Amino acid sequence: MSTTSLNPPLPPVELRQLVGPTQDHYYDNPTGQMVFPEIPPQAYDFVFDWGCGCGRIARQLLQQNPPPRRYMGADLHRGMIEWCRRNLSPHAKDFEFHHQDVRNLGLNPAGRAEVLPFPAPDAAVTLFLAWSVFTHVNEAAAVFYLRELGRVLHPEGIAITTWFLFDKTEFPMMQEFQNALFINDVDPTNAVIFDKSWLRRTAGLAGLTLSRIDPPAVRGFHWKIYLRKAGPGALHAEFPPDAAAHGVQRPPLMPADADRLGLDNDQEK
Ligand SMILES: C[S@@+](CC[C@H](N)C(=O)[O-])C[C@H]1O[C@@H](n2cnc3c(N)ncnc32)[C@H](O)[C@@H]1O
After folding, report:
1. CA distance 99 to 22
2. What is the pLDDT at residue 265?
3. Are 98 and 132 in contact, with CB atoms under 8 Å apart?
């Protein structure tokens, strides 16, 4: 494996704390290895990273050898997008970052929209990433964004997404239109858990197939769901059992000034 000397700055810890893991190695790819070795190299042609945060995966992809031909990140947090533009874009002209002015109680409380279309053309995205993002949107938004995924995904494209999932048959009190559970009654988007059957149905309606399902590494945490455009007769993969060991993986709680972090007037540390 060849190595790369590309060493863009790491985001400040204050921004990393907004998205979860803070250790350097989660942001780093010093050997330039393929970030998702399980997918074919041609999938990196046009990467769209929805909810890119402070560029954790973008930075790894910048260091990847070869990097994607084109990378587009989008996030609702203005400061993280500004940080990525200032610090990552100068290292690669084909890496662009878009702010989406979507409302979020902690990260963008004055946002103008509940949801916004992805800033990517139809059928163009060969690798769609939503790492720890569908875990932070409500049911109506998840329906909208699965449709958007169906719109932007290239016919041969792959989506890699993570989800918190449960089995609604265990919750007899839920209405037909209620398919998500929450852990935080102040900000429900802190962590959203979706019904597995609802996900299969909703993805199918968006023209997508669940092509591969990796169970969580910690019981009940991130399910890794790969999606593709549904070809004729395509069937969803089966959900494997979640046999992982129990553990604790708490989502970040937002500081009061979360929406202002990373803006140009903030001191970078
Ligand atoms: C847990 S973080 C994960 C960040 C990044 N994907 C990573 O793995 O480091 C979730 C990110 O999704 C963003 N996000 C949540 N809902 C969004 C939406 N509707 N549109 C755009 N970004 C969103 C948040 O601002 C946050 O940066």
Report:
1. 22
2. 65
3. no
Helices (H), 117-195: 139-152
Determine if ligand 1 sits within 6 Å of the CB of residue 76: yes
CB atoms within 10 A of CB 24: 10
Query: Rounded CA gap, 107 and 85, in Å?
Result: 18
> pLDDT of 67-122, one tens digit each?
999 999 999 999 999 999 999 999 998 999 999 999 999 999 999 999 999 999 99
Task: Work out the angle between the directed axes of helices 196-205 and 139-152 (0-180°, nearest 10).
Answer: 40
Instruction: Please give the C-alpha separations between residue 76 and each of 2, 159, 223, in angstroms, as whole numbers.
Output: 35, 20, 23
The minimum-distance atom of ligand 1 relative to the CA of 252 is 1
Tell me: cis bond preceding 67? Omega within 30 of 0 counts: no
The response to whether residue 137 sits with its C-beta less than 6 Å from ligand 1 reads yes
Q: Tell me the pLDDT tens digit for each residue of 215-231.
A: 999 999 999 999 999 98
Amino acid at 159: A
pTM higher than 0.85: yes
Closest CA to ligand 1's atom 8 = 131
* 41 CA distance to ligand 1 middle (Å): 25
53 lines ligand 1 (CB under 6 A): yes
pLDDT grade, residue 243 (50/70/90)?
very high
Is residue 191 left, alpha or beta, with left meaning phi > 0 and alpha meaning psi from -120 to 50? beta
Give dist(CA 246, CA 156) in Å, integer.
36
Does the CB atom of residue 100 touch ligand 1 within 6 A?
Answer: yes
